[in-house]
Amino acid sequence: MLQFFIAFILLLFIIAKSRPVQYTTSKLGTRIVGGQDTTIEEHPYQVSLDLHGEHWCGGSLITTTATLTAAHCTYSWELYAGEFTIRAGTSFNDEGGISIKVVNICNHPKFNVDTADYDVSVVFVIEAFVLSEAIQPAPLQFEQDVPDDTIGHITGWGTVEEDGDMSHILQHIDVPKVNKTVCQRLFKAERKIITDRMTCFGYTDGGKDACQGDSGGPLVVNGNQIGIVSWGEGCARPELPGIYTKLANPEISGHINHSLLGCVHIRNTFIDIKKNKLLLPFTVMYLIEFITVSDLML
Ligand SMILES: *[C@@H]1O[C@H](CO)[C@@H](O)[C@H](O)[C@H]1NC(C)=O
Ligand SMILES: *[C@@H]1O[C@H](CO)[C@@H](O)[C@H](O)[C@H]1NC(C)=O
């Protein structure tokens, strides 16, 4: 009886904890606004993380078998690694290049879907990409944060305006880094926290930004990747820069390093990203796990 009661309380707790906040549905899954056409040869590290063969998120190649993307692109329990493919070596959305099946997804264990903190995922493909002029790994810069106003370069096939259409041709733009204190102040009214795992890039006047479908793509400074497209409040709005996962944070670079040495298949929510509903069967499975754990504790 006591066990049943504990299980019931845990179920309530799980349901309460797993409700997503609004921006996760509006912005997560985040084309570049205000950009220009570019080619894959200019950005040979850019890949597309496809779900059921269609563009889902951006990403970057970091070794011949590993790509970097955002955890919010891959976290759903309902999605298996095998439902994703990585397409590399093409300038076009859902066309050309080479697609290889995903075998393993290593999300940051501390990824939080409500705050988008620790938004990093290392995604492995089943066989190695053959490197070419259009397929090359991105050099990563972990060592240090970059100064304010440094120009960052972003690329992607995401929507060209808030709630707009995806771009068929790869887009690129330059955006300057925004001072962290200033950024935190701008997002205060939105009740969003800019954590140490996040960095802000954008224009005060808006007009140029990452948008839906760019998520997981690379933020590059002087040819080195320093960030991952993570979230924003709408796209390209004035006074609301885009937020990127910061590779210079040791917990972010540490996760990438660990994952490259071998990872367990980690996912950590109960939300179906497509329909945004609770996944009861999985909740029940978790409950059984919790009951086993509380048995040990009692
Ligand atoms: C942000 O700008 C303020 C001055 O406005 C400065 O004191 C602070 O060091 C800057 N923060 C960072 C992280 O560079
Ligand atoms: C991860 O590896 C890179 C390159 O070897 C290194 O610069 C960085 O400090 C490492 N991060 C951690 C947390 O070990």
Automatic annotation (TrEMBL):
One Pfam assignment: Trypsin
Signal peptide: 1-18
Gene3D superfamilies: Trypsin-like serine proteases
Manganese as UniProt keyword: no
Keyword Ribosomal protein listed: no
Domain spans labelled Peptidase S1: 32-279
Alphabetized GO MF terms: serine-type endopeptidase activity
Keywords from the UniProt entry: Disulfide bond, Hydrolase, Protease, Serine protease, Signal
Organism domain of life: Eukaryota
InterPro entries (UniProt xref): Peptidase_S1 (IPR050430), Peptidase_S1_PA (IPR009003), Peptidase_S1_PA_chymotrypsin (IPR043504), Peptidase_S1A (IPR001314), Trypsin_dom (IPR001254), TRYPSIN_HIS (IPR018114), TRYPSIN_SER (IPR033116)
GO biological process, one term: proteolysis
Family: Belongs to the peptidase S1 family.
Protein name: Peptidase S1 domain-containing protein
Organism: Ignelater luminosus
